[in-house]
Predict the 3D structure of the following.
Amino acid sequence: MSWDTIDLDRDEGVATITVDRPDRLNALNTDTLEALEEALAEARDARALVLTGAGDDAFVAGADIAYMAELSVAEAQAYAELGHRVTDAIETFPAPVIAAVNGYAFGGGCELALAADLRVASERAVLGQTEIDLGIVPGWGGTQRLSRLVGDELARRLVFFGERVDAQDAHQHGLVGEVVAHDELDDHVAGMAAELAAKPKHALQAAKEAMNQVHETHQSAGLTYERRAWSGLFGTDDQREGMRAFVEDREPEFE
Ligand code: COA
């Protein structure tokens, strides 16, 4: 499959999805968002996924403001549902997802990054939930996912004021996990993804699913989920191989 504004590359178990609409700073119109949904479905067998934006300026500058300007309530609802399907597909993607935030990540762009497992920012990145100044609120998960990363007080400040934060501040707030030199971002993230792709995939998937429960359930239900996920992994070859390799003092060879 190929799309006009989304690229999907695959290399040794690592899939890289690039939003490729640089003349609009990779803003997500409906076609691009639908293509992104399809690309995420197509990449589901990957062992690690990288999400980034084309060009030197933007990760994703948000939902497409020109498209949204005249939407009716019903049309806005359909657009929100599409955005939610995409961010849910990132959050529940079976393998770890790394957002390589290579520039502006505003509004819906910030929300794509929030749905990823890990965020690595270029020193040039600027992030923010800027919707308030467009007369709306974050609509693709930002009102829910931001506070779990940065805490409720700061999340409210970012959403209420629509503040744009640079990479260093984003790192200090926990909005991104790491900041690297702009020219090193792609190689750095590719290295992380390759390392993850070499890990036992069932265990990684179980870790991700169990850790996602933190945001879905009360702690007691999450702990029950964890117990089941943990014991279920004892039916996999990777568990046997990983433990036997340790006992036999050799490197494991995962499936
Ligand atoms: N939707 C639609 N088009 C967008 C866009 C968006 N979210 N963000 C940028 N663009 C377009 C601009 O309209 C411009 O188009 P043009 O060349 O036809 O004029 C082009 O992308 C380049 O953007 P420009 O504003 O000229 O670049 P800049 O470097 O001066 O500023 C930003 C970059 C990101 C600071 C600025 O574009 C911006 O604030 N964008 C909106 C961000 C936002 O609020 N996103 C949340 C949406 S929910």
The pocket of coenzyme A is lined by residues 24-25, 27, 61-66, 104, 106-108, 130-131, 134 (CB under 6 Å). The chain has two domains: 6-197, 201-247.
